[in-house]
Amino acid sequence: MKNENIERILLEVEKPSRYVGGEINSIKKDINENTIRFVMGFPDVYEVGMSHLGSHILYNLINTVEDVACERAYAPWIDMEAKMREHSIPLYGLESGDPLSKFDFVGFTLQYEMSYTNILNMLELSNIPLRWSERGEGDPLVVAGGPCAYNPEPLANIVDFFVIGEGEEVNLEILDIYREMKKGEYTREAYLKRIAQVEGIYVPKFYEAEYNEDGTLKSFEPISEEFPKTVTKRIVEDLDSAYFPDRFVVPYIESVHDRAMVEIFRGCTRGCRFCQAGTIYRPIRERSVETIMNHSRTLLQNTGYDEVSLASLSTSDYSDIEGLVSRMMDEYKDKKIALSLPSLRLDKFPIEMIEEIQKVRKTGLTFAPEAGSQRLRDVINKGIQESDLIESTRNAFRRGWSTVKLYFMIGLPTETDEDVMGIKELAYKVKDEFFAIPREERKGNLKVTASTSCFVPKPFTPYQWFPQDTVEEFDRKTLMLRKSIRDSKVNYNSHDSKLSFLEAVIARGDRKIGEVLIEAHKRGCRFDGWSEHFNYEKWMESFESLGIDPHFYANRERDYEELFPWDFINTGVTKEYLIKENEKSKMAELTKDCRLGCTGCGVNNTFTGGVC
Amino acid sequence: MKNMRLKFIKRGNMIYISHLDLMRFFQRTFRRAGIMLRHTEGFNPQPKMSFATALALGTSSDGEYMDVELDSDISSEALLEKLNENLSEDIKIVKVAEREGKESIMSLIEWGQYVVKVVPNSEYILEEVQKKLDSFLKLEEVIEHKEKKKKNKVTTREVNIRPNIKRVDLMTVENGEIMMNMFLKTGSNGNLKPEVVVAKLVEYADMDLDLESVKVHRVDLFVERDGKIVTPI
């Protein structure tokens, strides 16, 4: 990337290497008039974007196509944004330095609702009109995908089309159709019409929403019969043979997850009722030990990382986790390559294995009991017992660990104050386990950290009908915990309830929320997920100025008959199943792991493959 | 085990990489090249690698140095070749030698050579600048006020930086730019930044220079060996 205008400002901003590209393994192609230009926009700062596995996969996959050049763009940090505006420098692709407005496609990955204002800011910095209705033939097509695209409606006025499901399945198809049409009589409209027929593609302009007087959705229909009534997600059927890049771009500056990442399986069979990923990534698909070994070997070789992490929703659920880990350790121990296993479950906690892998580098332990009482853990179908936690921590302390982090949620359905106080009790029990070890055998200085986040009900979960706790209720519960946890060995952290409230509004939002996003953007909202930039008042002013009540979206209990804005998307899991799970939840009735037998979610009727 | 000293250049986009990031960058480069570095013992083993001095962000250099301890036996030529295969144009190894002596590169560095570009606010001709520079270099004392923070108290110390300036040669005055070659004290035994020298020219030699315009390129680093000033390799 070479641009004198940009070079001039780089030394005036924090971490300039965020904005220069040229990293090891970045792909810079020669551009000619036949090149299809795609830019992957990540609506957060560079270090966060570079830690996202899916972006690495898609960037490399798209670049495998000869006449397609895929570049990257991240949200510039506040200081850089100010400089760019001051010097009229548009947002640019890191590989060429060319403004985003020159590209054919500008793609965004939707990982988190509170990054939506960054999308708007990035479009504005690129001089691309914010609404699809304002964009013309010369403007790029704005496309979005990722987990939050399962409710695309809040961005329906902004994004030209959505990819629902797994990108490596669909992205090449939309490029092929584009290439073909560019040779003939291409118009933006004709292209969108054509791809609206592709399974997994949602083009909002071809769908119309009508509302009831109470604000709920009355109907949601395609504007003509040529468009499908439902959009079914796309999945990679055989993950073992699916594309996986042999190299990742290696950032110069430290990223959030600064290591090689290998995905060992997709999906999860546990069925925790609060978890959206547990639904949208069904069915479960595994890679073989051999494939994982090969992927990680080439990745480590080509990146030079000294750490590899095994990515999945629940790593210890991998069928042959012990075989995999022992093979990796055999290969990596002498090379001083560390292995990290994020997302381990307490009831399958292989402490001996962890001890073995942490001989290279020792870190603290993190557990997610999610709820403080057994009753509430049963309600959410977490399926772990207090004894699992106590045993795991006891074993860990005996083996020399002394730092434990515990993650909980507050505001879960049926939660009482007693359940909330259970969080404190659990943290104290963990502490007692440490001090039950004879003084001379204890190692290190105990530190137990209990963190609570505020529960956000999400679409496609059994709790999609559930009212979120109000901000006041969250704050009351948090304060109650904060006041009662008074121990130098036990720390308590809580999340911002106001941020979770907005997250809940957008997560179950409809098209009207899109206008709020634009309004909040106009008022200067961006980097909302970063506490130093989150401005709740500006958001509230935005709702007020448009006459939209956020509580309608976050705090309202819905009934089973209500039509949801996301109901036209088919994840494979039926609404009936979600209703059944919601009812079982009220009775604190468990649903077993579907590896142990089909629980009838419906995904096996739509998709083949997986354990179903 | 082998102790090696490497000389490298840093330019282009790599000038935006901080010192800490550079260390991580090289650790990865060694791994990609398949060359195992020796590691420290303990819970968090770190590769044994040390750099001569940190280069300020935004500064290019043709003469940076690092010492490494290798676990494998490899010739200097092969090491240079393998590393460069895994590096780019903007950062390249230019010299490799087996290290003599035990002292760390960090404590050895005494002097640095810099090419400094600065834009004057008024028009100058070469002779004028040379005259002002000569008068500046005749001074026996050039005072720099160094601030020191200690327990929230800021104390100012006056330091004579003149002994830290070995030479300043005027190279060109053209196209609205003045180019100088400076030889300054550099490293952990004393360090004078070229930017400070430019500021002192403004202060002591009555030169009208744009301090924001200063661009520095490090030419090389030097050690003192048997009373002579030589490069570390």
From TrEMBL, chain A:
InterPro entries: CHP03960_rSAM, Elp3/MiaA/NifB-like_rSAM, Radical_SAM_N2, rSAM, rSAM_horseshoe, rSAM_sf
Stored Pfam families: Radical_SAM, Radical_SAM_N2
GO molecular-function term, one example from the UniProt record: transferase activity
Domain Radical SAM core: 254-496
Protein name, entry field: Ribosomal protein S12 methylthiotransferase RimO
Entry GO CC: ribosome
SMART domains hit by this protein: Elp3 (SM00729)
Keywords carried by this UniProt record: Ribonucleoprotein, Ribosomal protein, Transferase
TrEMBL record, chain B:
Pfam families: DUF2344
DUF2344 domain mapped to chain residues: 4-194
Superkingdom, natural source: Bacteria
InterPro entries recorded: DUF2344
Protein name, per record: DUF2344 domain-containing protein
